[in-house]
Amino acid sequence: MSNNGIDPFDLTRAQFQLPDGLVYLDGNSLGALPKATADRLANTISQEWGRMAIGGWNRAGWMHQPRAVGDRIASLIGAPDGTVVMGDTLSIKVYQALAAGLSLSKDRPVVLSDSGNFPTDLYMAEGLLKTLGGDHRLKIVDPEVIIDALDETVAVLMLTHVDYRTGRMHDMAGLTKAAHSKGVRVIWDLAHSAGAVPVDLALCGAEFAVGCTYKSLNGGPGAPAFLYCRADLADHVDPALSGWLGHAAPFAFDLEYRPGDGIDRFRVGTPPVLQMAALEPALDFFESVTMNQIRARSIELSEAFREGVEASCPMLKLASPRDPHARGSQLSFAFEHGYAVMQALIVEGVVGDFRAPNLIRFGFAPLYNSLADIDVAVDTLARIMESGSWDQPQYHQRAAVT
Amino acid sequence: MSNNGIDPFDLTRAQFQLPDGLVYLDGNSLGALPKATADRLANTISQEWGRMAIGGWNRAGWMHQPRAVGDRIASLIGAPDGTVVMGDTLSIKVYQALAAGLSLSKDRPVVLSDSGNFPTDLYMAEGLLKTLGGDHRLKIVDPEVIIDALDETVAVLMLTHVDYRTGRMHDMAGLTKAAHSKGVRVIWDLAHSAGAVPVDLALCGAEFAVGCTYKSLNGGPGAPAFLYCRADLADHVDPALSGWLGHAAPFAFDLEYRPGDGIDRFRVGTPPVLQMAALEPALDFFESVTMNQIRARSIELSEAFREGVEASCPMLKLASPRDPHARGSQLSFAFEHGYAVMQALIVEGVVGDFRAPNLIRFGFAPLYNSLADIDVAVDTLARIMESGSWDQPQYHQRAAVT
């Protein structure tokens, strides 16, 4: 509650467009739609593209957008202004950060990651290391033994802060410190962190961070990714994806690449102006509530859900850390027929998602999820589990996207 | 004229939103806004994202969009269904095509290009070749001597079909044939070709093509790029940007990358759903007119402009091929103070652009440019040149984006 007795989250919740009666606990996959987004995008289309056409690059500030929006993201992840740039997808940003990290430690051949990392991070690393050739290799260890695997062969430690399956949250400061003590550079993937949990990049001192904006930041399907590079390093890395908008003088049209100053060299091609315009109103929410407020409410929501489910659904086994401070803003439960249970839940108006092989996963978005949502979700899940109503043929049919 | 006496381009022109009185000859940089775009995007936002949320990936077909839209592009560039995929930016697609081409000829170290190529293509090649290391190198020759430079050291010939500065159009079939006779793979950048001139990829047999959709295809600022890979090759290339949506089973979340079938392996991260939705209505225009009709009208427009300017502006020197069949849908003129002339023109309501060091550039978009536009543009340019009104201090001040 704020000082005047109004819950700030009642105000934010009213500014999202969600179907009546739907309990949406999948904002950790795709955030809900802010009511302001459609108008904002209509304005960009008709008032900027429609009236200014090519002039929009200067007059509407499109060219500067990747930096301007980057500064807004920076404020949510403990990064100074001028250290974050937007564009492309998270996969591309992983590739860029990893190539940059490797360019700082050319004598070390190993990229270290853990089996809790999101697969695309590992796939992009595989592709980069194959392209680099030589002794370069990817080493994947269990999350518990990362520190033991840090040695003088490791160039870069690349981890996702919050595990997409279980919500288990790494100790960002501790692991970064351990890596630095062995001369290892660190990349944090904040896909499930940005807008979900407080992050302090400046404090932890990591070299790079990347993330997406379509989950807890509510930027919409296909929203752009972000890349953070520590300010003292940006001028010293070799960009692997050396596109013209990362050039020191894009409109000089030189035949040779010269990297731009600082974070600008992580720009690649033409920025996704419309996706960026859709992201902007979504970031306004973070001006009315702090990340600490969001975290406190997130814990309240997830604890209520965990307690409710554990009390009423004995067949579901908690797959997330029991300590709310050891997990992000999500909870998962293991059950052999998890896929069917989730389909039944969705039909009943409670949306979470399924992650192979057997996890049902629920995300908690304080900006639009209330305690009343949690009650409905627990009751519905309990009813489905108790009645066995999930065990119908149509709930076992897998869709293309799970 | 069509059979019933109605000019099909009068119909298309009425479906674009352009400021009253503006003559927009910069569609080769950013295409004009189709009137249908705003509603289409509003629908995607409120009816798909707003109502389906995460369900949009399956129910609204978002996951399939990069292939479905790719098929629509394929039909405009002479490519079969299933050979084109959308996503990312043109710079990224250049990187992917080049890495794929090099993976097919591992014993050849050279990428050959010409000095008329758009700089980002050369920059991305530089970055990739540096990452690959070894003997890999980029060789840049003049456009006239490409064939002489083709030899057994060259793995890939990478060219932009229509020169962004002059509009000079390469002989796609002839150069591809010459390259193939030396065992060289070919990548065509169609940035200034797709939607502007007829292209027949199947006929010319090139291995790869890439392009953007915000120029003559009118997809809007930040519209996604496309990549074509010849059907018989797609299963044999090693993707350098091995992202999860190019994986054979993205939702199995394996720790190791296995490339998807065919063109799917060129997908990388989450597709830009909103940018893709904005592109869709722009592609509808190409169902009412053929690329041959567009080409015929484009030549009519550019010839009228060339004749008018050459007759009335003796100080402007034609920098494009005089033969309309040897150029794309654009014309450039050289003049020492070209920048100031273009600024004066823009203030007078005729929009082209400037390309360093001294070119004023005009694009012709039959979908919305009329012969009446050409008359206004010629008269305005002649008046500015004759009066010397371009020589004012404010017209010499360079903007960030030219």
Give structural notes.
Two copies of one chain form a homodimer. Chain A is an alpha/beta fold and 402 residues long. Helix content of chain A is 37%, strand content 14%. Chain A contains 14 helices and 15 strands. Chain A has helices spanning 8-13, 37-52, 56-59, 65-74, 90-103, 119-132, 146-149, 172-181, 201-204, 273-284, 291-312, 338-347, 371-387, 393-396, and strands at residues 16-17, 23-24, 33-34, 84-87, 110-114, 137-141, 154-160, 185-189, 208-211, 225-229, 317-318, 330-334, 350-351, 353-355, 359-363. In chain A, the strands form four sheets. In chain A, strands 4-10-9-8-7-5-6 form a seven-stranded mixed sheet, with helices on both faces. In chain A, strands 11-12-15-14 form a four-stranded antiparallel sheet, covered by helices on one side. In chain A, strands 1-3 form a two-stranded antiparallel sheet. Chains A and B meet through α2, α3, α5, α6 and α10 of A and α2, α3, α5, α6 and α10 of B.
Core attributes:
alpha/beta, 402 residues, homodimer, 14 helices, globular, seven-stranded mixed β-sheet, 15 strands, four-stranded antiparallel β-sheet, 37% helix
